[in-house]
Amino acid sequence: MSGTARFKFRLYIAGDAENSTRARANFLAICDEHLAGRYEVEIIDVFRHPGRALEDGILMTPTLVKLAPSPVRRIVGTLSHIEPVLQAFGLNRSSP
Amino acid sequence: MANRMKYGRSNVAKVPKSLTGVTGLDEMTDGGFPSGRTTIVVGGPGSGKTILSLQFLVRGAAHGEAGIFVAFEETSSRIISNAASFGWKLGELRQQKKLFFLDAKPTTDLVQSGDFDLHGMLAALEAKAREIKAKRIVFDAVDVVLALLPDAAARRREIYRLHEWLLARNLTGVISAKRGSDPIPSVDQQWFGFMQFMVDCAVILHHGVVTGVSQRNVRVQKYRGSAFDENESPMLIGAEGLEVATAPSLSRSHPKVSSRRISSGVRRLDTMLGGGYYRGASVLITGFPGTAKTTLSGAFAEASCQRGERTLFVTFDSDSNEVIRDLGSVGIRLAGFVKSGLLRMVSARSITGSAETYLVRIKMLARQHRARCMVIDPVSTWSNSGGDLTAHSVAERLIDWSKLEGITLVCTSLLDEISSQSEVGAPMQMSTLADTWIHLSYVIQAGERNRGLSIIKSRGTAHSNQVRELILSNAGVTLADTYSAGGEVLMGTMRWEKESAERAAHQITEAAARLKRVRLDAEEAELAVRLKSLHVELEAKQVEKALLIEATKSREGELSRGRTRMKELRGSDMAISVRK
Predict the structure, then answer these.
(1) Best interface-test mutation with B: which of A59, A66, A87 has the largest number of B CBs within 10 A?
(2) ipTM rounded to 2 decimals
């Protein structure tokens, strides 16, 4: 995996619900560690934009969608287990 | 029989309810699911949870209550196309904004990391519910999404969240969940008990196979603040959705009781029954194979058609054309009525399934045909499908239903030669329910097998207690009097012999009487002749007597004249005055 690809994310959260707050913190920590300087993220609060959740088919919160690089992947949860998250990002821990 | 518990009678404020659109279920729950509350529908795979939930929404949409369907397991397009087979136009309802489908099936490539919740879905649903002014909402197969949650605590939390959300929005909710057939829930299904405790109404669906026949049942497990039928009731997936078969409750309208009689198709049987079957009655004809059960019911069908009444003839044993042909051989002609559309013959050999299926099909056929008279030949076929217990309750409901509809029902029932030599063993205990029970039997006597007919019971009718002989000929069906000799009923040749002996005896007496009459006639004639001759003799005597008198008179006159003459001649006048 090249270390130069740019990442594009969308994070759906539900206001300041506990799970959502944790997911946001975990997401930022993971990105800081593995994708510093090469990611952008749009954070959507489903309470404020329920129509968005409906359109995008977001039912469980928090949900992180990796839009780029392809393939698009969806990760549900607080992102507290880092292993599956990195796998979904296409990052291998042994080669940071 | 259902024992209906009425807890809620004293409560003035009844729980408001929303009809489910599933007829029997609405009766079991005394009006449907609790409005503004949550009902859980639990059952194994294929037990009809999705259909029940959809029917609930369709009923609402048809009566101005918009609904939302959250599909966790199937895609909405598949659900819509499946529902089309029930005639539910979900696509149209969706366009009219009476229904909204949310595809909530988790994608297979979904990565899960840590805990999550349903906030997102509920926020989305809230917006949608407000938009279409939804009153009803269904979460179908909620177990699918619950299984994704990391632990039992999270599952409980989300169930609770869902429940609170529904209550706060005053939505009438149905949550369906799969559950294995194990009586003890596995660890990952511990949420189930919690959910049952939380909701106001719990409905359990069961789908099983009993002796090779598929059977569905529904049971209301709990219903807060309401009376409900606690028993398991058979349910089936019919042409227009689910249908639950419930035992008739006391509250249901009573059938109109008629005292009009209609012909059984056999004139002498009508006489035996005091005029025929009662209109709207249920008649059971039992007998061994070949005792002319079909013939007797065919005669009834023919008589109904001759009166111009629409008749449904359901045959389980043979093809309907065969039945028409066979009945034609004994002078019962049905083909014309079939052609004119008055009679509908249905061969039910093709129907496979449980007794419930038969019942529903027959009800549907009768309704379609607008039948006033119905023949089911034989009803005992049912006992083969799904066990005696079910068949019994089905037969019971068939009778109840036909009474309610005012349909005169004639059922035949096969007694099997080995098990039921006694008449008591009438199949399915239908005999207790039927108004009239006619039993056909063979009487074996003097090397002959003759058909005997007896009326075992006939409610509200003074009926003949005598066994009659049933005679089939190409001129039709009739009954013959039987003779009892030495305490035995005589039939067939023996009856014929007895009849001819009586005829001969009768002839002899007749001849003797005739002879006597002739003799008397002769005597009478003789006397008349004698009378006449005496008359003549009398007249002669009278004439003779008159002549005599006359003669005497004239002689006396002659004499006196002579004497006077003589005195004159003698010149004596003295002699004249001194006559002696």
Answers:
(1) A59
(2) 0.85
